[in-house]
Every structure is written in structure tokens, then in C-alpha cells.
């Protein structure tokens, strides 16, 4: 049975510090980095497989990655976890859904154009998401599991906003440093899902032969996905990078039976 699921991950506000293991020169962007990120998610979702109600809440978000910059090329491998609760109130009843979102991503970018202080890079990304949800109010359908795997085309536009002299923008003071503002857009070339065919309970529980993924279906080229990131980066003299970012990630499965939208603030 076909199904739909829509996930939107947005408003990524976190501070990311990159520990650099090698630098050719002070304030150079070449080198290998360890990326550590922490922030919060706001989530809003509905899964029509179990309930027409919307759930809203806040999740904690952590991320760890390995980044390599070499001759304007970029390569990154990262893992992430978002975890927390979402609630829904209807007819004086409040239901709570505990949510965990696990991520594993690998991306590569190559320079294709540069002019003055601007540069454009193109590449690809393999992005994987595993969702777990537990909602006791749904009784036999309280546990939900979903897999998403997407091959994406990626483009990144960078703007060098480095300052060589100290600047003031009340009440802030900006010391001379290499700075960059970038926007990255990613669109799905192939979106794949592994999810239950309809509701979360299954016949294996009834006959006392429980199988975790009983009734699950693998759908290739199913639905769509689009993501974007806006980042402000400061290259420090000690070889580290501080990054402040905003991200949006939206994806859904194909099909016509189930319509399950998500809205996540990450």
C-alpha cells in the first residue's frame, strides 16, 4: 500500500565550531576539520496513518562531522541526532509523542565559477534519516519507524565578506578576519523510503510472532526532497571556524493513501 509523508526541517540556529587539524596559512580555508554543532528543533507533524491531529514541540539537536577543504573543494561526513517531545491537545485531551531523528550524510562540492568575492560550487549529497516516534495515546499504534534515503544535487553560493580593518556595527565590534556568507540549495535526484504500508500494528503481534518491520514497504524514486542552508562563517586566527546557520529540509514519500505532513524547526 502506498503512503505519503512530508517532513520540513527549518530555522536551524546553532553555533558550530570546527577544530582544524591542518592549515597551510593563517586564516586559510584549506584543511581538515572536526565539526561540532548544537541547537534546537521546533517540530510540527501529522501522520494520517494513525491520527489527523497535528503535534508540535521542541527537540534538542546535536551534530558531529568531518570536513575537508582542499583547493576550493569541499567534502563532509556527518551524523546528527534530534530528540524531544511533541504534543497535541484536542477536546481537553493532551497526547505526547516522543521523537528521535537520526541522520547520516555524505557530501562533495566542486568549484565551477568565481568572480570577485563570489564563488559557486556544485556537487552531490547522500542524505539518510531514520525516525522513531512513540505515542502511548495511540495504543496498539504507538510506535512509528521510518527510513528516508535521498541522493541530492547540491549547489552552494559563497560571498567573501572579510574585513581587513576593525568595523563597528552598534553594539558589535568586528575585528579583522576572514568571513564568509553562503547559501546552499539541495534538490532530490532520487528519493527512497522504507515505511509501514498503512498503520503501525501488524499481524505478527496478533499471532505472537513479532517482527519489527512486518508490513513495511521499500519505495524507490518515491516523493521528493528539497533542502537549503544559510551560513555565516568566521575563520579564527587559531585555525578554528565559528559558524552560525539556518537550515530547511523538506521531504515526503509518494503515494495517494496516507497524507502525513511534518514541520520541524531544527
Topology:
Elements: E1 6-10, E2 14-20, E3 31-45, E4 55-70, E5 73-90, E6 93-115, E7 118-134, E8 143-160, E9 167-169, E10 172-174, E11 178-196, H1 203-206, E12 216-219, E13 224-235, E14 241-252, E15 262-265
Parallel strand pairs: 1-15
Antiparallel strand pairs: 1-14, 2-3, 2-14, 3-4, 3-15, 4-5, 5-6, 6-7, 7-8, 8-11, 9-10, 11-12, 11-13, 13-14
The overall average pLDDT, rounded, is 77
CATH topology: Lipocalin
Number of strands: 15
CATH class: Mainly Beta
- The general outline is globular
Major sheet description: 13 strands, mixed
Report how far apart the termini are: 31 Å
Unreliable runs: 1-28, 256-266
Q: What is the count of distinct domains?
A: 1
CATH architecture: Beta Barrel
Secondary-structure element series: EEEEEEEEEEEHEEEE
Radius of gyration: 21 Å
Number of helices: 1
DSSP strand (E) fraction?
over 45%
Secondary-structure-derived class: mainly beta
Your description of this structure?
The structure is a single chain. The chain is an all-beta fold. It has a single domain, classed as Lipocalin. 2% of the residues lie in helices and 66% in strands. It contains 1 helix and 15 strands; from the N terminus they run βββββββββββαββββ. The strands form 2 sheets. Strands 1, 2, 3, 4, 5, 6, 7, 8, 11, 12, 13, 14 and 15 form a 13-stranded mixed sheet that branches. A two-stranded antiparallel sheet has the order 9-10. The longest helix has 4 residues. The radius of gyration is 21 Å and the shape is globular. The chain starts with 5 loop residues before the first strand and ends with a strand. The N terminus and C terminus are likely disordered.
Amino acid at each position: 500500500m502506498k503512503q505519503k509523508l512530508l517532513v520540513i526541517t527549518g530555522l536551524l540556529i546553532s553555533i558550530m565550531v570546527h577544530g582544524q587539524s591542518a592549515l597551510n596559512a593563517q586564516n586559510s580555508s584549506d584543511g581538515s576539520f572536526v565539526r561540532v554543532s548544537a541547537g534546537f528543533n521546533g517540530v510540527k507533524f501529522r501522520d494520517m496513518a494513525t491520527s489527523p491531529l497535528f503535534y508540535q514541540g521542541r527537540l534538542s539537536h546535536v551534530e558531529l562531522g568531518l570536513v575537508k577543504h582542499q583547493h576550493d573543494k569541499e567534502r563532509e561526513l556527518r551524523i546528527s541526532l534530534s530528540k524531544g517531545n511533541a504534543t497535541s491537545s484536542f477536546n481537553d485531551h493532551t497526547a505526547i509523542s516522543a521523537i528521535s531523528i537520526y541522520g547520516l550524510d555524505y557530501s562533495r562540492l566542486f568549484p565551477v565559477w568565481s568572480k570577485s568575492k563570489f564563488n559557486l560550487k556544485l556537487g552531490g549529497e547522500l542524505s539518510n534519516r531514520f525516525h522513531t516516534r512513540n505515542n502511548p495515546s495511540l495504543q496498539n499504534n504507538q510506535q512509528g519507524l521510518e527510513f528516508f534515503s535521498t541522493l541530492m544535487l547540491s549547489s552552494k553560493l559563497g560571498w567573501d565578506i572579510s574585513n581587513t580593518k576593525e568595523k563597528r556595527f552598534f553594539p558589535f565590534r568586528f575585528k579583522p578576519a576572514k568571513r564568509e556568507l553562503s547559501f546552499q540549495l539541495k534538490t532530490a535526484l532520487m528519493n527512497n523510503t522504507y515505511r509501514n504500508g498503512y498503520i503501525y500494528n501488524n499481524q505478527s503481534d496478533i499471532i505472537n510472532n513479532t517482527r519489527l518491520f512486518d508490513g513495511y514497504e521499500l519505495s524507490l524514486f518515491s516523493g521528493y526532497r528539497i533542502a537549503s542552508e544559510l551560513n555565516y562563517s568566521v575563520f579564527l586566527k587559531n585555525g578554528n571556524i565559528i559558524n552560525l546557520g539556518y537550515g530547511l529540509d523538506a521531504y515526503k514519500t509518494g503515494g495517494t493513501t496516507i497524507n502525513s505532513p511534518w514541520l520541524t524547526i531544527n
